[in-house]
Write a sequence for this structure.
């Protein structure tokens, strides 16, 4: 990105304003979850419908995440899914939450998201993570020939930025390589490229995002104990840049809204059992609420489930709204990104709709 296009293109998308009476921008992180009794195709169709609804309801952005080897998650390729969602919507900001950079060559990522930006200028975010998003064996299969991993993330990020910006310093081994499409001009005005976000669940990416002056998204939904320390580290490390004058933090939050607290808890427990199986190395389809109710939990498993549910904002819509707002104030996050890891497309879409209504979102 050039300095001339940064302020015009990046400031407003990153610093997205609240709409209607909402106290802060509210966004969605979606995994195209595949529940028991559903197919991946049905899950992707539901994600497309959810993106359309999110645009109608007034959610600020809609991100999809890269995961591999997980039968319950169909979003294995964010750029492919983002292209499909962008064609199915008109104004909704779309992005990756995120692309796991160690799994890919930086040039390939730059070309993929440069192409998305050229097709849908001003609507694309490039969120990057340093974890593989899968098990070690699958990570090795994905990285065949790359020879790099999470420890090389800063170098990979520097290469990706160079390709996105359209140039490397003299003497760099890639100075003659151009990512196509790269930064281009339309009618004499700059198009630029998609803004880069760093994602994380610990202090490493928080510090790096701060030092580089990039927006930061923290995975509160599976690392709640680290949220405040990581955001404090991000803010204390922050150096102003062309992208941002001051820190901008988003936190991912598990949230489930239903007509009653009992119903919301019942839905959330299906996601809890799915996470339990994932932690035990047995990922599968999202179980039904009935399966989650009848599962023979050990005392240790019940402890895990209780701890996981404690970090889910759930209940009737008003209670979810209040819980989200309390979390935003406690962490100082400028934006919340909700995710509902539950069984059943209808229940998932209904949950997001109830949250949007309670939160006072309106399409802008």
């Amino acid at each position: 990105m050039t300095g001339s296009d940064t302020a015009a293109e990046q400031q407003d998308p990153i610093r997205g304003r609240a709409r209607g009476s909402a106290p802060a921008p509210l966004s969605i992180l979606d995994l195209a979850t595949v529940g028991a009794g559903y197919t991946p195709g049905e899950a992707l169709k539901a994600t497309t419908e959810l993106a359309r609804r999110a645009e109608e309801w007034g959610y600020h952005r809609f991100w999809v995440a890269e995961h591999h080897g997980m039968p319950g998650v169909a979003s294995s390729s964010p750029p492919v899914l983002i292209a499909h969602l962008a064609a199915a919507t008109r104004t909704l900001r779309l992005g990756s939450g995120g692309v796991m950079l160690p799994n890919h060559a930086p040039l390939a990522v730059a070309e993929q998201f440069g192409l998305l930006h050229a097709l849908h200028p001003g609507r694309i975010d490039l969120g990057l993570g340093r974890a593989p998003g899968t098990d070690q064996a699958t990570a090795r299969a994905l990285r065949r020939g790359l020879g790099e991993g999470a420890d090389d993330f800063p170098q990979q990020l520097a290469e990706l930025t160079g390709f996105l910006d359209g140039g490397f310093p003299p003497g760099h081994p890639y100075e003659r390589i151009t990512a196509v499409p790269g930064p281009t001009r339309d009618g004499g005005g700059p198009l630029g490229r998609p803004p880069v976000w760093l994602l994380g669940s610990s202090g490493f990416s928080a510090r790096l995002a701060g030092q580089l002056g990039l927006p930061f998204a923290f995975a509160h939904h599976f690392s709640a104990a680290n949220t405040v320390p990581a955001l404090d580290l991000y803010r204390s490390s922050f150096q102003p840049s062309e992208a941002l004058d001051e820190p901008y933090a988003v936190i991912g939050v598990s949230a489930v809204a239903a007509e009653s607290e009992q119903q919301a808890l019942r839905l959330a427990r299906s996601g809890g059992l799915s996470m339990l199986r994932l932690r035990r190395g047995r990922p599968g389809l999202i179980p039904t609420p009935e399966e989650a109710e009848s599962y023979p939990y050990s005392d240790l498993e019940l402890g895990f489930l209780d701890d996981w549910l404690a970090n889910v904002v759930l209940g009737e819509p008003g209670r979810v709204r209040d819980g989200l707002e309390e979390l935003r104030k406690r962490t100082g996050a400028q934006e919340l990104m909700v995710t509902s890891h539950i069984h059943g497309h209808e229940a998932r879409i209904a949950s997001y709709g109830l949250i949007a209504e309670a939160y006072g979102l309106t399409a802008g």
About this structure: Confidence is low (pLDDT under 50) at residues 1-13, 15-22, 186-190. The chain has 13 helices and twelve strands. The two ends are 27 Å apart (CA to CA). The domain at 3-359 is CATH 3.20.20.30 (TIM Barrel).
